[in-house]
Write a structure and sequence with these properties.
37 strands, Neuraminidase, five-stranded antiparallel sheet, 5 helices, mainly beta, about 10% helix, six-stranded mixed sheet, globular
Length: about 600
């Protein structure tokens, strides 16, 4: 049986919270009204998108969850209770520090708003320049922090800073959403830097009139951040999703941002009245102060096709490459292109991706029936893709690597299951309102991590399996998913991912990495953390009559891996989500050479 829950933003425990020492700024009614109007406007346009496109959207589903629960959040603010919050502090080093693993976020703040349920961090990205490291992550606690203690917009984004190359981190709390009540920074962070002082934080951004991709900058190593600037924005008939960003090493003033435009306007030049998805790219040539108009990298017309999950990287000579997924009716392409005089060259098919897990039909009374593809443990895995380029100046300089998780190697029959959809509030006279939906029998496909490499970014070799274990010939298999990729100053390539090879039941998750000097042989090693179960659906309490801030099938879609952007030092650092019994999902960082 598979239960699909909707979550309430505020539980009874929140109303009695007396933790910490930071006084609350009670949100004023004008601010609350502005937030509510903006959320409802967004929600009303979101439900007009085709169900296939809604299923591919990531961060904006959190806005829909929040819109459904905002009245309860506002009621808590008006209750007269005084809420307090601990000051963020340096994360205490744990017993795993000697193994290169340290805590990133401050877990002591996770239960400030409730003794019943806490908050979660997920979907991390890391930037390193010299000894300065900044990690960004989705943080549901930032939403409550910015609502109850802020005076401007709302934030679903957090960050932590290290000045000792990732040996210790300081959690700085919620990312600055700006002073406008209508602003909402929605996570999906991408971190970049040009030197140890200057960092950039790219993320989803919503204003009163537009969905946008926002970029914030820091000139003190990531400790404080500017108000977000819209690198690109469009009206609410568009939903801009899954941003990725990089800096040109040959010209650090040049910043590239790619993203997906889910376009329901019916007025695009390429698709006319049809719905449209497009991978687009904007560029700044002045350090993020201004950005060009969007350049279309790829677009698909119609409800049953789409593009998503673009990544952008630049080689040593300033040539930008963009990789992404193209969803066709029966296949999914992994494609790549590069820019020539600012415009995309014809795209190249690297390989066709096979999605893992099992496909479920989800019955949502407001949005209709949608398809959700989940791994065991009931969490989505749609964006396992990454791109990196060798900029070492060595013999393999310019080599382009693309990695993804792929389920071509093993699939087994999966019997029909159950989906229980707890629908919304105000169902008079019904104690437990739910609509069971019987699912059709299908297959469960187990994912491996694949990589393909090219000397020129155009001609790619065969896809190679990175994880060293093989899928069993009989019985079930093992999932390996969400690979992250980087190449350091020596030309060594590294990939890290979540891995279930050591659990015969394919449930508990570990983390593995692999290194390669040439992209052909990959030396696997286990990250020394204890295995964890895929714990999610924890945020702000369970309530079958309400909504919540986090998609209940969501554990994040990616975790970045990076190296020193300056190229002066070797080695890698990457953050990732880690869970254990007795605590909420948190962020750890792992460094290795």
């Amino acid at each position: 049986m598979r239960a699909r829950f909707l979550w309430l933003m505020v539980v009874v425990g929140l109303l009695g919270a007396t933790l910490g020492a930071t006084a609350q700024n009670t949100p004023n009614q004008d601010r609350i009204n502005a937030m509510k109007a903006n959320l409802n406007q967004f929600k009303n346009n979101f439900i007009k998108l085709p169900s296939n496109h809604r299923a591919l959207l990531d961060g904006w589903t959190r806005t829909i969850q929040l819109a459904g629960a905002f009245d309860k959040l506002a009621a808590a603010a008006a209750s007269g209770k005084t809420f307090t919050r601990k000051q963020f502090s340096d994360v205490m080093a744990d017993a795993q520090k000697s193994a290169g693993i340290v805590g990133v976020n401050d877990p002591s703040t996770d239960l400030d708003f409730s003794s019943y349920d806490g908050v979660t961090q997920s979907e991390t990205h890391t930037a390193m320049c010299g000894n300065q490291v900044v990690v960004g992550f989705n943080d549901s606690g930032s939403l409550l922090q910015s609502f109850f203690f802020g005076t401007g917009g709302l934030s679903f984004s957090g960050a932590a800073v290290s000045s000792d190359r990732g040996k210790t981190f300081h959690d700085i709390g919620a990312m600055n959403p700006g002073p406008d009540f209508n602003n909402l920074v929605q996570g999906d962070p991408i971190l970049t830097c040009t030197d140890s002082g200057h960092f950039f934080y790219t993320q989803l951004f919503e204003t009163q009139t537009a969905t946008a991709i926002g970029i914030s900058n820091s000139s003190d190593g990531g400790n404080t951040w500017s108000d977000p600037l819209a690198a690109v924005s469009k009206d609410f008939s568009h939903f801009l999703d899954k941003p990725w960003s990089t800096i040109d090493p040959s010209n650090p003033q040049r910043i590239y941002i790619s993203y997906t435009d889910f376009d329901g306007s019916g007025t695009s030049a390429g698709c006319g009245a049809q719905t449209r998805t497009a991978i687009e790219l904007v560029t700044s040539n002045d350090g993020g102060a201004h950005f060009t108009s969007p350049v279309i990298i790829d677009e698909q017309c119609g409800d049953n096709v789409a593009v998503q999950t673009s990544h952008v990287a630049v080689n040593s000579h300033g040539v930008a490459f963009i990789a992404w997924q193209r969803f066709n009716p029966t296949t999914t392409d992994v494609r790549i292109t590069h820019l020539v005089n600012g415009l995309p060259a014809p795209s190249v098919l690297i390989d066709q991706k096979v999605f893992g897990g099992d496909a479920f039909l989800v019955d949502n009374l407001e949005l209709g029936i949608e398809v959700e593809s989940d791994l065991e443990g009931q969490f989505r895995n749609l964006s396992g893709l990454d791109l990196a380029i060798d900029r070492s100046g060595g013999p393999n300089d310019g080599t382009v690597y693309v990695t993804w998780d792929d389920a071509r190697n093993k699939s087994v029959p999966d019997l029909a299951g159950f989906s229980i959809d707890f629908f919304g509030p105000n169902q008079p006279g019904v104690a437990l309102p739910f609509t069971p939906l019987i699912l059709t029998a299908g297959n469960y496909a187990y994912t491996d991590v694949l990589v393909s490499r090219s000397n020129d970014g155009i001609h790619f070799g065969p896809s190679i399996q990175v994880n060293s274990d093989k899928q069993p010939k009989v019985g079930g298999g093992h999932d390996h998913f969400q690979p992250a990729l980087a190449v350091d100053s020596t030309g060594t390539a590294a990939i890290c991912w979540y891995d279930r090879r050591n659990d015969p039941k394919n449930f508990n998750i570990e983390r593995f990495c692999a290194e390669s000097k040439n992209g052909n042989g990959w030396n696997n090693f286990r990250v020394p953390i204890s295995p964890f179960a895929p714990i999610h659906r924890l945020d702000f309490g369970l309530d079958i009559f309400g909504g919540g801030a986090v998609n209940p099938a969501y554990m994040g879609d990616y975790d970045g891996l990076t190296t020193d952007f300056s190229g002066k030092t070797r080695g890698f650092i990457g953050a990732f989500q880690w869970m254990s019994s007795g605590m909420n999902p948190d962020v750890k960082a792992f460094s290795f050479q």
